[in-house]
Design the sequence.
């Protein structure tokens, strides 16, 4: 897909992966919609992008408010008149034992990571089907392929995205709308630091895996490359990606090792 001058909507654009993607898109003179909850941070990213006013829209959204997805999309169309790419990247992480995780927390994670994600994709897909063109990019996780202790609800939300979008992709094919699922491994962001615990409080504890993870600039370059090459799926990370084929071919050994590694955490 040629990204030159395309209209691209990035959620989770206020930090981490989403912010880095916005900077990478500037190489292609894209018109960009920046979305996240924190408007002040979106304005900071806009300033860093050095983008002209006519080529950017700051659109604060809260993915928990799924019923507003149609109105958000209307605002984008009023500004740009079309929608070429949705990078559905906004989300939240969780770290807590199953027994210590409240139903409210479970619902919050699913509401943001799954229902909010899906509601926005469905609203945007209506426009893309009318255009007979477009691409929906979804940030999942390698934990969409297996679960780990302390991350049950987060893993569940990412598993759900795979089930939905593998199906939705086939339904959209006839309308020339494609879906790219992107599964990050360990990326150097604050996602672990900002995780919520079982009672809904913020973890405020970083992860060595995230600290030593791939830089967001490298991740963004690989993701944008996958969009340009019309990929359907891509894993982006380092040696942790070996866990995917390892689980497939040696499942018993895989879970035995994961259990040992998780003890004491």
Sequence:
């Amino acid at each position: 897909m040629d990204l030159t001058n395309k209209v691209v909507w990035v959620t989770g654009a206020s930090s981490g992966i989403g912010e880095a993607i916005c900077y990478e898109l500037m190489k292609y003179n894209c018109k960009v919609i920046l979305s996240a909850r924190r408007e002040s941070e979106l304005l900071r990213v806009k300033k860093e992008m050095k983008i002209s006013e006519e080529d950017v829209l700051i659109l604060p959204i809260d993915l928990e408010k799924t019923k507003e997805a149609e109105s958000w999309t209307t605002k984008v169309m009023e500004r740009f008149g079309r929608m070429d790419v949705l990078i559905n990247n906004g989300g939240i992480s969780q770290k807590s034992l199953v027994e210590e995780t409240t139903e409210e927390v479970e619902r919050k994670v699913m509401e943001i990571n799954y229902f909010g994600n899906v509601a926005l994709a469905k609203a945007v897909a209506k426009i893309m089907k009318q255009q007979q063109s477009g691409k929906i990019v979804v940030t999942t996780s390698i934990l969409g392929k297996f679960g780990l202790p302390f991350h049950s609800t987060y893993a569940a939300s990412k598993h759900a995205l795979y089930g939905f979008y593998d199906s939705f992709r086939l339904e959209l094919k006839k309308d020339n709308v494609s879906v790219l699922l992107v599964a990050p491994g360990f990326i150097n962001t604050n996602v672990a630091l900002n995780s919520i615990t079982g009672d809904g409080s913020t973890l405020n504890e970083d992860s060595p895996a995230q600290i030593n993870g791939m830089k967001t600039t490298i991740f963004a370059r690989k993701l944008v490359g996958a969009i340009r090459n019309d990929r359907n799926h891509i894993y982006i990370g380092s040696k942790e990606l070996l866990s995917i084929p390892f689980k497939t071919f040696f499942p018993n050994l895989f879970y035995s090792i994961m259990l040992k590694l998780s003890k004491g955490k």
